[in-house]
Amino acid sequence: MLTVRAPATSANLGSGFDVFGVALDRPADIVRVEKAAKTTIEVTGVGSQYIPEDPEKNTVGAVAEALEAPAHIEIDKGVRPASGLGSSAASAAAAAVGLNELYDRGYSREELVPIAAKGEAVVSGDAHDDNVAPSIMGGFTIATDEGVTKVDADIPLVACLPDIVVSTRDARRVVPETARVEQLVETVGWAATLTSGMHRNDPELVGTGMNDTVVTPARADLIDGYEQVKAAAHAAGATGVTISGAGPTVIAACHESDQRSVGTAMMDAFDEVGVQSRVYQTEIGDGATIY
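-> structure tokens emitted (291 positions)
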């Protein structure tokens, strides 16, 4: 039996819709894989009651099938489902890394990304690499049809998870089908700024690059108190604030010295609109790790 820890992730980061992602130091899923005649799944942990154990309906079942690696798979959820923190991606990433090792399939980490994305498709309906890429490879990732580029960035982050559920499918339904040329130009500029900030480990540049006038405003209405939380985080020292993935988690970049105050401000702002939340003071971390 192999044990794999795969981290939560934050995708999009504002300007990088369906492209950018970062691995978070915490929380994480723990997945154990053991060879078997057929794939069976056992799920425990946060939100486990909402996750199907049928291999045809679970992300890790699709990964096992893609790798032709039947196994008994135990998933200990540390990343809440429907949180915007790549919950399904963490499980899929851990399974891909673990089964690849268990069956000696020989795939590189980058080659495992599209395989894990097949598991993501079970939940979201589409195979996207923006969450599975950082969960497998770690760091800040840029995932395109041409492959994945990774940057080993070091940026302090605060992720505030409210007691709200936003499904990936619902969040995708509100994404605008078109954008004005001016918005396209702005987005390109912000995405370039964010990428430069990751290379330089500069929270100010990363924060500026988290701006977005296309997707984030459309999704903000799905999160009670989003604008208040964003304003409170900025007032407490955040350099940038946006929705993590499909939401409802709100993620902020900041300097390490401001992490605690930013986290407290975000929780207090959610509390003022009657929404309970929890905060992860985290940073960009490593990808899936085999123990």
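The chain has a mean pLDDT of 95.
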